[in-house]
């Protein structure tokens, strides 16, 4: 994907010529072939892509976002670091917004002088706006450039300018391009066709149309360093203006390709909408390589100002979902984290465009091999497996070398700095109830553990070991790794963490080996991994089906709903996190002979999360008892698991 950074025109041409292979899905051992050429499937995709109709908006960008304060509703695409919004009166597109510096660069960078209200629409890959007789369309041609097309009555002398431009911006004109420079070194290039005359006063510009027309295309380009020069980008933008129809076709082909690989004609339209919204959310959070992000990757949410980097288990979850419709991006999204793997095998918690901000205090749960397996099942790319296997082996070893305090082959979450905060971060469940009484113990230099072995971590490591064995077999090579086999490790973990009295899987204390009896979502991870025996599954399922504990209005909260510490807005102390709900539903799919119960819970998720089948955004987590959105909007993690739930609907292993 680096060519897109250096050669936007060549990338665009390659993009136009690229094929769109038929979909083949494989996930969690279940395999299904979805026919992508049926008339019903093509119609379902076309309905989702229909622009101009506000009621068809996949997400309403004019609605206030719920959850955290000060979030922004944005449209972005193609890995760009800029996004656009839409004001409530929809007279013009808002922005662009600088996603890295989290600031609006202008209220509108191309705003007609005559203000007029309009109706806007956001469908996959495009914003459209109708105001009187003028129809505007905004879409991304590549990571640097969005094209704005205006169709309708544009009389001689029609004018536009930037509205409420950042007051520190410097504006100059050169030929048909306006260059707007900002204090952080970022530049906006606004390129017009030849029939537009430009003037600037240093603080704003005015574009005047010479000769009436019924069509005008403007290129809005965003640059943040000198890798792509202003001159190169101006040439690229002018070329795109001259070939706007081809750029639009490439955009439609790309988005049709995404949706055609996923959308199922056997699903009702509301659920197809959920799948499309999940894809839109993931692609909107795609960021092009920049600085310390050495490959393209996905951020958690473009709506929240501190999400400008990539987090480890977040990326692995994203890649597992991307594999079904954008496998090359899924691969780069794995590489963006492993680019910073340490010599000892550790993968950092998160990486940023500014590497000085990378967090090495902790890692994240080992789900990387699972994501690579999802990519393999969708692509059968042996070269990628060969590339990743030694990195995955090193990461697997790291856990046993630095996070096994008593060297008994069972690991603990921990930290490099000895703090409980970082250790909780490493679990991914920052304030989980099971850690309320935990303490830190020292393993060695820069290596500390919690004083409890965690059931989810060790279950993940069983899956990790199983998949490493699978990858070695695919490559026809021995697996050079110490310790028990996956089946032996599975038996050890199963025996260590199952409490036959409470009939649940719990963490347990170091030394005393007593169970940490807080019934939480970590207790059904062994079911998802498939290491629980059938009697254990039946026993745990008794509690999963209990409406007072886990079979709640939105199913499978992070802590049993009748726990005195349960907090409906308590982050990991009560709300629904869709990865954990996914684990429970897929466990039912794995152990039961029919998919009925798993599908029932999937329908509850789709039907009851507020705004999901309508025009609301996808959120970080949700209130268990009401489905009210919580925390961050446009959240990749939730989108990834909604898409995987959709993909698996109706299937059983």
Describe this entry's structure for a reader.
The two termini are 35 Å apart. The chain contains 18 helices and 30 strands. It is α+β, with helices and mostly antiparallel strands and 653 residues long. Helix 7 runs parallel beside helix 18.
Strand order of the largest sheet: 7-8-9-10-17-14-13-12
Shape: elongated
Distance between the termini: 35 Å
Q: Got a strand count?
A: 30
Taking the sheet with the most strands, its summary is:
8 strands, antiparallel
Average predicted confidence as pLDDT:
93
Instruction: Tell me the number of helical segments per DSSP (H or I, 4 or more residues long).
Output: 18
Give start-end ranges of low-pLDDT stretches: 1-36
Helix content: 25-40%
Structural class: alpha+beta
**Beta-strand fraction estimate:** 15-25%
The radius of gyration over CA amounts to 25 Å
Which characteristics define this entry?
single chain, 653 residues, 8-stranded antiparallel β-sheet
In short:
By secondary structure, the protein is of the alpha+beta class.
Question: Can you lay out the helices and strands and say which pair or pack?
Answer:
Layout: H1 2-6, H2 8-17, E1 25-27, E2 30-32, H3 39-49, E3 82-86, E4 93-98, E5 103-104, E6 108-112, E7 119-123, E8 126-131, E9 134-140, E10 145-154, E11 159-163, E12 170-174, E13 177-181, E14 187-191, E15 196-200, E16 205-209, E17 213-223, H4 230-242, H5 244-260, H6 269-284, E18 286-287, E19 297-298, E20 310-311, H7 312-322, H8 327-338, E21 350-351, H9 368-379, H10 382-402, E22 414-415, H11 420-427, E23 440-444, E24 447-450, E25 452-453, H12 455-475, H13 486-497, E26 498-499, E27 504-505, E28 508-509, H14 525-529, H15 534-544, H16 578-591, H17 596-608, E29 619-622, E30 629-633, H18 636-648
Antiparallel strand pairs: 1-2, 3-4, 4-5, 6-11, 7-8, 8-9, 9-10, 10-17, 11-16, 12-13, 13-14, 14-17, 15-16, 18-19, 20-21, 22-24, 23-24, 25-28, 26-27, 29-30
Helix pairs in contact: 3-5, 4-5, 6-18, 7-8, 7-9, 7-18, 8-9, 9-10, 9-12, 10-12, 12-13, 16-17, 16-18
